[in-house]
């Protein structure tokens, strides 16, 4: 006979499933030339980082395209809906 105090699920078969955990956005796509995201990343690298460095926390003029895309994605998911993909060579 199952004890409802220790196993509130019916039928009770071992340990209950853990509560759902929120999963971070695992979608990735590198900004492609001609896309709005690529245009914004290119401007950020050529002009924005110099004119408004505070808009790009943690970045420098030597940061990579992927670094800029990652920051812009955090700030503007409409223009850059995806994080850049992680390179296997890193």
Please provide a written account of the structure:
30% of the residues lie in helices and 0% in strands. By secondary structure, the protein is mostly helical.
Summarize the structure.
The chain is mainly alpha-helical and 90 residues long. Helix content is 30%, strand content 0%.
Low-confidence regions:
none
Q: What is the radius of gyration computed over CA atoms, rounded to a whole number of angstroms?
A: 22 Å
What's the assembly state of these chains? single chain
Backbone shape: globular
Mean pLDDT: 81
Number of helices: 2
* Number of strand elements: 0
Report how far apart the termini are: 56 Å
Order of helices and strands: HH
The helix content is 25-40%
């Amino acid at each position: 006979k199952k004890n409802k105090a220790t196993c509130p699920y019916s039928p009770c078969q071992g340990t209950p499933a853990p509560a759902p955990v929120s999963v971070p956005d695992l979608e990735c796509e590198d900004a492609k030339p001609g896309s709005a995201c690529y245009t914004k990343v290119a401007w950020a690298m050529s002009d924005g980082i110099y004119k408004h460095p505070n808009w790009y926390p943690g970045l420098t003029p030597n940061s990579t395209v992927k670094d800029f895309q990652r920051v812009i994605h955090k700030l503007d998911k409409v223009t850059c809906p995806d994080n850049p993909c992680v390179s296997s060579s890193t």
